[in-house]
């Protein structure tokens, strides 16, 4: 089984890369992608602890935003981490997340929630990408609520008065950067209305023109109708269709391998990278 979208504690997951790989093997996975948000910081640990029988796809989930403010997540897989343009873009996004968090915390303080940026940063692993889930964890630690789901439902969703946007490249720019780095670009959970506004089917022409390689069709946040529509779009543009867990450890309900990618679709995707970068022991 192939799972092309997972997170470790180097972004907003709760498992170390080592634990993630161990769980992958226990769940019968043969290939797993590590795709932390806007960072490659967990790659080395994953490579150091990879065991025979499991193939590792290294990548990142890149935060994007359309010109009209719709949040889009682009999975970059199998790219060269030495590519300066892509690494610089991810670094800029991470830096802007810090300023954004200060603004969100200030809004919460004004509303009577006693939380500090230091308490939020205490939830991060070394080198991890700062995000709203870490603020949620800090709120839980303070006793305000009991789960990330509760914090997001009440305070941190995209339509909340506490929400603050941050710098992100457009999907087209992110795709171009991934392609320039020799990797492949897969749009993640594109029709997940639970996360806010979603892109229109017509948007995909622009993404394909930029070099889009695949669509994450099978995801727990997609309805059957969503999957059928995305599958039809993938067929229209000859894109790979992926299925993924979007696993976050204890941070979300998603379970490893609950959706997975057909080996033929992964081969189609891998063939579009400029080098074979899947790691095996």
Structure description:
With 281 residues, the protein is an alpha/beta fold. The chain folds into 2 domains: 192 residues, TIM Barrel (Alpha-Beta Barrel), CATH 3.20.20; 60 residues, Orthogonal Bundle (DNA polymerase, domain 1), CATH 1.10.150.650. It is 38% helix and 14% strand. It contains 10 helices and 7 strands. Strands 1-2-3-4-5-6-7 form a 7-stranded mixed sheet. The two termini are 17 Å apart. The mean pLDDT is 94.
Please outline what is shown here.
The protein has helices at 17-26, 43-48, 84-110, 117-121, 132-141, 148-156, 171-180, 204-210, 224-237, 263-270, and strands at 2-3, 31-34, 55-65, 71-77, 184-188, 214-218, 240-243. With 281 residues, the chain is of the alpha/beta class. It has two domains: 2-91 and 169-270, Metal-dependent hydrolases (TIM Barrel, Alpha-Beta Barrel); 97-156, DNA polymerase, domain 1 (Orthogonal Bundle), CATH 1.10.150.
Describe the secondary-structure layout.
Elements: E1 2-3, H1 17-26, E2 31-34, H2 43-48, E3 55-65, E4 71-77, H3 84-110, H4 117-121, H5 132-141, H6 148-156, H7 171-180, E5 184-188, H8 204-210, E6 214-218, H9 224-237, E7 240-243, H10 263-270
Parallel strand pairs: 1-2, 2-3, 5-6, 6-7
Antiparallel strand pairs: 3-4, 4-5
Give the biggest beta sheet: 7 strands, mixed
Instruction: State the total count of DSSP E strands.
Output: 7
Name the CATH superfamily assignment of the largest domain. Metal-dependent hydrolases
Distance between the termini: 17 Å
- Count helical runs: 10
